[in-house]
Amino acid sequence: MHFLLTEGNIHDCKQAENLLEPVIRENMYVLADRAYDTDKIIEFIEEKSAVAVIPPKKNRKEQREYDKEKYRNRNQVERFFSRIKQFRRIATRYDKLAESFLAMIHLAAALVYIPRFNTIV
Question: How far is residue 98's CA from residue 96's CA, in Å, rounded to a whole number?
Fold first, then answer.
């Protein structure tokens, strides 16, 4: 898991390459919503021999194909962010320093992710 903190007035797709760079690998599926349907992001994903599962924007002249079955798994990402936002300190952006806020995001992510390992004894 990788997090990248940006300013609140910057669109996420501008940092997509920086966010994907440390984790993307060959034959990986990259799931994202329509906001990430830019030629630059699609080309970056394909250069890394990964598969972009991003629905095309409605106003795209040439509509691309995408795996609708795989795209259904994107809800897991949305649910993850919803669980993280249950931590009041994150939802209200209580921390004033970026380092403190990012540390809290890492802590919240770990607390949300740990219950997945309850089968390990």
Answer: 7
| Beta carbons of 3 and 9 less than 8 angstroms apart | no
Four-residue CA torsion sign, 33, 34, 40, 45: positive
Backbone angles phi, psi at 96, to 5 degrees: -85, -30
Tens digit of pLDDT for each residue in 68-111?
999 999 988 889 889 998 888 888 888 888 899 999 999 999 98
51-65, pLDDT tens digit by residue?
999 999 999 888 989
Contact 104, 95 (CB under 8 A): yes
> CA–CA distance from 115 to each of 1, 86, 119, 120 (Å)?
16, 16, 9, 10
- For the chain, the domains span 1-71, 85-121
Q: Are 106 and 1 in contact (CB under 8 A)?
A: no
Residues 6 or more apart in contact with residue 12 via CB below 8 angstroms: 6, 35, 36
